[in-house]
Amino acid sequence: MNRHVVVIGGGPAGTAAAAAALRQGARVTLIDSNEALGGQYNRRIPAAYGIRRPLAIGHGYAAAERRARLLLEHPRCEYLARAAVYHLERHPEGGCPTVRLLIGVEGERRTHREVRGDALIVATGAYDRVCPFPGWDLPGVYTAGAAQTLVKTQRLLIGRSVLVSGTGPFLLPVAHSLAQGGAEIRAVLEANPARRILRHWAARPWELRHSAGKAAELIEYASSGLRHRIPLRTSSAVIAVAGNGRVEEATVARLDEHWRPIPGSETTVAVDAVAVSHGFSPQHELAVAAGARLNADGFVEVDRDQRTSEEKVWAAGEITGIGGSQAAAVEGAVAGIAAAGGDPDAERGLRARHRTARQFIARLAAAHPIGAAAAHWSQPGTVICRCENTTRAELTAAWAGAAGDSYRAAKLATRAGLGPCQGRICGSAITALRTTQTADGTGSGNQCRYGTADLAPSGLAAATPAWRPLAAVVRLRELAELDTEGQS
Questions:
Q1: Where are the domains of the chain?
Q2: Quick one: pLDDT at residue 48?
Q3: What is the mean pLDDT of the chain?
Q4: What pLDDT digit, counting tens, does each position of 340-365 carry?
Q5: What's phi and psi for 193, nearest 5 deg?
Q6: What is the spatial distance between Cα 466 and Cα 424, in angstroms, rounded to a whole number?
Q7: What is the CATH number of domain 4-126+281-367?
């Protein structure tokens, strides 16, 4: 009997997993929180805009459109759009978890649905990480992903004079998109030193043989930077912004290898917007709810077939390591074949591409880590948890008092992480702030120890996530109306 594979996530990893499972003869239910396939990476321009060439807004859109059409038209694939998975019920005997979801627009009347399959693939992606600095909560400071999405899919610029700051290759396409849209990019600021980046990217070039497309993209973005006269500065970052009600100026500083600002190097740049990305945080709440283990860097632990520590649960894409759309799609294909009962070794060249994808992920993490000193760009009055308006001073006071040393203790004492985002944005910042303080018990955060261990390969200092019975926003009315109709 053909297996029923349930896939959560409609981005590159999820769609590749669904397509691969279908090739193995499986029946697939593809669950997507968005209204159209593509995820964050291939988010579409709304059809109402009437764009003549809507797939020309970025790399990979044409291939993503072909895959989406295949899935939408396939008789064995059920696509559930605008579907919020709010609960995973583990099987008492180790079988595939039951997926509970709500279909529809949040705030309007939604339909309950329950899906039971033979295998579950979690491909929920990641979101931008920002290391808090004074003024980061001012209007005009955007994550780099949000800035790119606005300009690509809504034709909206975050500002006319923009600084792009953070770490990783993602900064370059963001600057390219903004410049193409008409913004003046004052500079792209990469926080890590050039020697570190070059050392890791230049080593063992044969491992990048399946990433030729990425090299072509890099050349395109470098050419765009030259054409638009965009300066690229390494060992530099925006460490503060200021303005009357919105961003008017940014403080840029040179950084040492641990991202500690070098005294006297600060300069003030007049801008009206800043796009920031200090890496990405995996959106692994559902994987944790399914019982999957995380590794030391906060990503979902998988084997060579992308299977998690739970026998009937697979994971693919950014929740297993940040590597971009190509790596995510390869991981998705491996997971889809294995979850459907096939052998990934039987697909020609897939194992080689999979090895290269994992090597690319490791190389990216090693070349662009987050420096420990970034945890101390903030000042006592800087808001760390924006949902609950919790400042760094309130957190350090909690650590100095009876609240204890853990993130959970600080959360209970200050409400940091208890807002709508449930710590997805502030959790890593809170943990990084605490773990880089001195062990003198004061919790003052005014001193730091820096060493080679402070540059973790993944750049993640993520709080250990607590399992929550509800993984998405659900209204009490919706819970009260819960029934068992629509099971599959």
A1: 4-126+281-367, 130-278, 372-454
A2: 65
A3: 85
A4: 999 999 988 999 999 999 999 999 99
A5: -70, 150
A6: 11
A7: 3.50.50.60
Q: Which residues contact 382 (CB under 8 A, 6 or more apart)?
A: 132, 133, 134, 136, 391, 392
The predicted-structure confidence for 93-124, as pLDDT tens digits, reads as follows 878 999 999 999 887 889 999 999 999 999 99
Judge if 4-126+281-367 and 130-278 fold alike in CATH terms.
yes
What homologous superfamily does CATH list for 130-278?
Answer: FAD/NAD(P)-binding domain (3.50.50.60)
Strand partners, 274: 141, 163
Mean pLDDT calculated for residue range 260-285: 95
Query: Measuring CA to CA, which residue among 128, 123, 129 is closest to residue 431?
Result: 129
Spatial CA neighbour of 279 closest among 306, 310, 318, 250: 318
